[in-house]
Design goal:
The protein is about 80% helix and about 0% strand. It is an all-alpha fold and about 200 residues long. It has one domain (about 5-195).
């Protein structure tokens, strides 16, 4: 029998939570318009692992759905920009490096927008400016996140096969949130001190 305080039990509990989050993310993203709210809710549930999962997820989804539409629109514009940039600089010297740098910056910026949607209360340009500053402050940690995501996806598909799809999205989001947790907590403390 496995003790409740053992590392194996903790690992199994975390794995089950990631599988549950992944299923919730997929279900809440079925109408593609709601994908932004689902991503914000997934990040919030990962940040607060001791809270009840489904209640936290649904509450956060409802609270941030409209704000995440603005972020999702920006994400779509970012995607179109990267596609056009790829077509424009294709064949230039160092085009792969330039493309990777811009894609990494935009990916981390978009993920930070989703991550900060529940933390920052600003709207519009102020929100995007704060997310940009946060991205600049954390880019040294998240620079290779896109390569890490691709590598993790390939590794999981080889090792786990179809089981990979149960944890794919939530595990990538989990890794990203863990990379920037320290800076995010600092922002929350600064906001709390400003309001006090």
């Amino acid at each position: 029998m496995i003790a409740l305080s053992s590392k194996l039990y903790s690992f199994c509990e975390e794995l089950m939570r990631l599988i549950s989050l992944n299923i919730l993310l997929i279900v809440f993203s079925l109408p593609v318009v709601t994908a932004g709210g689902a991503i914000v809710a997934t990040m919030e549930a990962i940040r607060h692992p001791t809270t009840p999962l489904i209640r936290t997820y649904i509450t956060c989804f409802k609270a941030n759905f409209l704000k995440s539409l603005m972020v999702m629109g920006f994400s779509l514009c970012s995607y179109m920009f990267v596609k056009q940039l790829t077509l424009t600089i294709n064949g230039l010297p160092f085009s792969i490096i330039i493309n990777f740098l811009i894609m990494s910056l935009l990916l981390t910026y978009n993920l930070n927008c989703y991550l900060l949607a529940n933390v920052l209360k600003e709207q519009g340009i102020k929100f995007f400016r704060q997310a940009f500053y946060f991205t600049l402050g954390t880019f040294h940690k998240t620079f290779f996140f896109s390569l890490l995501g691709i590598g993790l996806t390939l590794l999981l598909s080889i090792v786990l096969g179809l089981f990979m799809f149960l944890v794919l999205f939530s595990s990538l989001i989990y890794l990203y949130v863990k990379l920037v947790t320290k800076e995010l907590n600092q922002i929350q403390n600064d906001l709390f001190e400003d309001r006090a």
